Amino acid sequence: MAPLNRIVMPKIELNSIELYYEEHGDGEEVVILLHVFLSSSKMWANNYVPDLMKRYKVYAIDARGHGNSNKVKIGCNLQQMADDINHFVILKKIDKCILAGMSMGGAVAIQFAINFPERIKSLILMNPGPGSLFSKGFFLISPILSFISQKKCLLKPFLKSVLINPLPREILSEFVDDAALVSKDTWLQYLNPDNKIQNFE
């Protein structure tokens, strides 16, 4: 399949930050795609968007602190990211959406559905989960994470060691490039064990 011609969109101002997004297709139903931690909207470009855009209006969003969206000193937890999506939906005048998320994106999608059920038509969840990878001993390992987050040469071996399924070389390289854009503040805020899906029961 030929690489998708990515349309560079302006950032949208909401929640005192700017979120970068891409828009594809012109279907009546809306699909919003939420990426994994340390990644960006690019992860959807070639494997999902080309087929989805044939039927749906598709938005792929860079979460706060990721990709081309604003870097943030504070405020990179599931509640705030779900609230960002709510503001996005309101500004885009979307009544209901199909919300699809992988890993971090799945956790954000669940939090969004809990907080704003009236805006959800359906959920597509792929291995959803909050930042609990280092829940035990987080505060002991956080200085190490801070150091790794700022050293691109360390990101590749680190990401390879924590990925459940190995990525092809080209995709891993793109993932490393995206991860290098994420500040240590975002790393530590998202991976903090207190960053959990609220009211999940």
What do you see in this structure?
This protein has 201 residues and is an alpha/beta fold. The protein has one domain: Alpha/Beta hydrolase fold, catalytic domain (Rossmann fold, 3-Layer(aba) Sandwich), CATH 3.40.50. Helix content is 36%, strand content 16%. The chain is built from seven helices and seven strands. The protein has helices at 49-52, 78-91, 104-115, 138-149, 152-162, 169-180, 184-191; strands at residues 12-14, 17-19, 21-24, 30-34, 57-61, 97-102, 120-126. The strands form two sheets. It has a five-stranded mixed β-sheet with strand order 3-5-4-6-7, covered by helices on one side. A hairpin with a 2-residue loop joins strand 1 (12-14) and strand 2. The longest helix has 14 residues, at 78-91. It starts with 11 loop residues before the first strand and ends in a 10-residue tail after the last helix. The model has no long low-confidence stretch (mean pLDDT 89).
